[in-house]
Amino acid sequence: MLLRGLAGNPSAPADVLIRLTAANIDRSGLARRRDLPAEAAAALATDSDVDVRLGLASNPNLPPTVQVVLADDADPQVRGRLAEGAEYFTTSGVHGRRIPGPLSREVYEVLARDPEPKVRRALGFNRHLPDDVRAVMLNDSDPRTAAIAAAEWPSAPTNRIGDLLARVTGAFGRQMLLLRLDGPLPAEAAHAMLADLDSAAANEYSMALLGQIAEVVDLDAGLTDRFMASPDFRAAVAANPTLSAEYVADLAHDPDNQVRAAVVARRGLDPALRESIPVDYNDRSSETVGWLLTENLSEQEQLAFARSRHQIFRKTLALRADLSEEVVEILARDESFAVRLFVCERQSNAPGWLLTQIVEQWTSYSRWDMLRHKNFPADAATRLACSDKPHDRAVAAAHPGLPADTVETLLADDDDTVRGRAATNPAVPADRLIELLGSADSVIAAGAAANRVLSVVTMRQMVDQAGL
């Protein structure tokens, strides 16, 4: 347990991590470390434990030489994990989702020729897959691989829409493809798709595809009339960037709340018109305005969106990483819980009073990140540490601002998670930390080994004593 805790110590130096690759412990956590030295990664790439290699294949920071080894792994699960390049979360006080960087060109080409269809299918989901490699995969002998390669093209070329639609036959796959087009869907292609849909029985997938067509097609008169006449698709067509200004103005007064919401979210809509449109929002909805996340906004534009009557703009704005102190302060006092939550999850300058407020009400996974936020108050952490709920105590146990007597109380807690977290608290004095390493309680000993203030000298002594 000591060495396993040490493998998770954020302060462990490269030489210790390299030596731990030979330890008789669960090394999968070590393999996932994003600061894993290249030499350690190379050693784990040939580990006999497939779970270790799977963990390594999920690591977004692998050197190309290790990627090449994993691309030739005997287990297709490992090759598939590497191929997919799945997104991961960062939890360093500010919650965030990240996409791994691209693999080497050689690795993409090897994986595209993999004999196992499941590996090639996984590769189709990779967001960095070079366009020319993806184009070759459209002719894959496995129809599902070809369909995924087409539907998951991050910026699917509209000029190849015929080829792409020929590969993606299912309604859901076609919906995903249309979602990623690099321009409006040509009207001719839309008419052909509609003819197919009209000749088959309607279901939830075909209805969703119809809505996606209404939202992205280059509207002509016939298509506009069709979608405007249908209550089911008026919201979708209201979001279509090619819809004429005349129809946009009409839909701004539509009796349907969802239609008005779609008009409000249009890129380039006159700000005065946008603010004049009444919309009710569900505070539990995860919907955001995609273009607002990447739009180049001036300080005045940020302030205007922060003061918008529309919750969806304020909520989306709270996800951006470039907000000024004034904008964050405005959003921190927003009436919407969702907006305030996003401020706590994503803003490095979220105020301590708000972090305290949200942590008291929010019990999902990002709560743990908020306790690690640099602005989270020590007194609030201490109150949580004294809670009668084990989850609260566990969340607070590692906060560096806890009083020494509170930490000691947590080290004697009945709950294993609480004791283990308390042993990782960086406020534990050095001499007490050495005592905890020798504890008969393996949970406490492992937590002490993972404590980031543990001296490097002690870490090296631990791997020496283990004969590594």
TrEMBL record:
It comes from the Bacteria. This is Leucine rich repeat variant. It comes from Streptomyces lannensis.
